[in-house]
Amino acid sequence: MDLPEGLRRAERVPIVRRRSRAGVLIVVIGAVMVLAHAAGFLVLMALEGREYSVVAAVYWAITTMSTLGYGDITFDSDAGRLFSLWVLLSGVVYMLVLLPFFVIQYIVTPWLDRRRTSRTPRKVPAPLRDHVLLVGSDAVTQAFAARAERSQVPAVLVVENPVEAGQLHDQGRQVVVGPLDSAMTYRNAGADRARLVVSTLSDTANTNVAFTVRQVSGDVPVAVTASKPVSVDVLGLAGSDHVLELGAVLGREMAGRVLGSTGRVHRIGSFGDTFIAEAAARGTALVGMTLGEALAELRPCVRILAVLRKGRLRPLKPELRITETTVLILAGEQEELAAYDEQFQAQEQSEDPVIVLGGGRVGRSASRELTDQGVPNTIVEQLPGRVENSYSALEGTASYSVVDGDAADQRILRRAGLDCASAVLVTPRDDDLNVYLTLFCRRLRPELQVVSRATYERNVATLYRAGADGVLSYATIGATDLWNHAGLSHRVLVAEGNELFLVPRPSSLVRRSVRDSEVHRRTGCHIVAVADEDGTLSYDTESVPSSPGKLLLLGDRHAERLFREAYLRRRRPRPTGRVGPPR
């Protein structure tokens, strides 16, 4: 879903066809050079008073260009000798291009491709069960595969291109290569034994994949992505159990990260009956308190799992001062969160408006979510009529407005209400543009909350450096949704780079404090709560019990990997009697 359809079609052009076109072009250039040199030969020989046939002229041109130079035909004039030098040098240059191209493109590269293809599996081992099949290799499936590797969950990528499959296999991924519209491919991939089949291709390709998988197994769950709302029903008819309209989900998640100006609670996920929510301290009586004072104030209703400031975690120290920019990550049941709202939310104060930059699918979804929450918002869209035709025509009266113009124009943003807005959502597809708009809005109003979208995970850190308070990416949102749908360890995305996830309780941490700083120093993970086997959180447990259960951790993917390596993976015994690195 991350690449436009034009780029996808370009990637599907067979490699052999591209090589053939280049080879034909070089041959044509060589033929033109030979004919041009032969014509020059005939003209110069005529000036010297000698006549040769066309065959002799071509013979002379080829032998001279190839540096053979038999010497049976030579020029007597200086002009002819200079022309011979030119033909010789041009032939040398041409041969330096021709020979390496044909050797590399038609001998070496095909041999390497065949070797890589022969090493790429076309069938998974028969004992493999409860694995996840990932059809395609876009940003979402790559993020899912990386998460599965950290969690030691078997994930198999199904790829059609043998060369791409070989590259993924060389990177350590489990891969099966085969046509995506062939039932045999999914039989070889063990679809009938899989936990879940995920396809993130185009809507039409996902329809074909779902139909084909259903030929192999009628029971395996199938989850697909959809780029258009009209495709959801069709994908369901094709046999998909879960259709993720990623643009709409990303828009709703971005809208859910708007903290507002009244201190109200925003739910971002749940573990069992416990809801995870975030609440801004801005506008509440918590501003100015220390964390210790806030904990004493909140303990009867909710628990503070983490404290964020400008998108970054702060240590949970009692002396930490809560400011206007502090965001609290809370855990509690529905009634407890409602009690927090009743105690701290400014009920008599209305929400300040939000500006949504971009009127695409993500922007319209975010605006619709804000409207449903009663938050006034303004969409800034460069293409006139885009939002009215595709969004406002579907809605009745709504508390949003539209401003046509370039979001990079300060006058347009002022007209959209930047001076009185509480937040800006940056939703375009272009990451470069999003970095520019994030930096622009941050400079215009430093105190403004900025939530930005990232198409690629590699640009998340750049957006944070540009001034974003929160960043959400296609890859993380899609991978998290599909991960939770697969019934694997449940996760809640707090912000890009920070996730709440459950892990088994390591025996080495029994009776240690939940706030043990050594775990954070060693791995980067924060232990925020203790959970039962079913995922129910225990609020009042200050140390890790010895009974079976789980820990709720907060951290990024690198911290999770370090925690699992340090506390969950059994160390393999060192082999004896051999020298060298392990196999």
Automatic annotation (TrEMBL):
Query: Membrane-spanning regions, if any?
Result: 21-46, 52-71, 83-108
Q: Which domain of life is it from?
A: Bacteria
UniProt membrane topology term: Multi-pass membrane protein
Q: Which residues form the RCK N-terminal domain?
A: 351-472
Please provide the record's keywords in A-Z order.
Membrane, Transmembrane, Transmembrane helix
What does the UniProt entry say about where the protein is found?
Cell membrane
PROSITE patterns, alphabetized: RCK_C, RCK_N
What the entry lists under Pfam families is as follows: Ion_trans_2, TrkA_N
What positions does the domain RCK C-terminal occupy? 263-346
Q: Which InterPro entries match?
A: K_chnl_dom (IPR013099), NAD(P)-bd_dom_sf (IPR036291), RCK_C (IPR006037), RCK_C_sf (IPR036721), RCK_N (IPR003148), Trk_Ktr_HKT_K-transport (IPR050721)
Give yes or no: UniProt keyword Transmembrane: yes
User: What name does this protein carry?
Assistant: Trk K+ transport system NAD-binding subunit
Native species: Brachybacterium sacelli
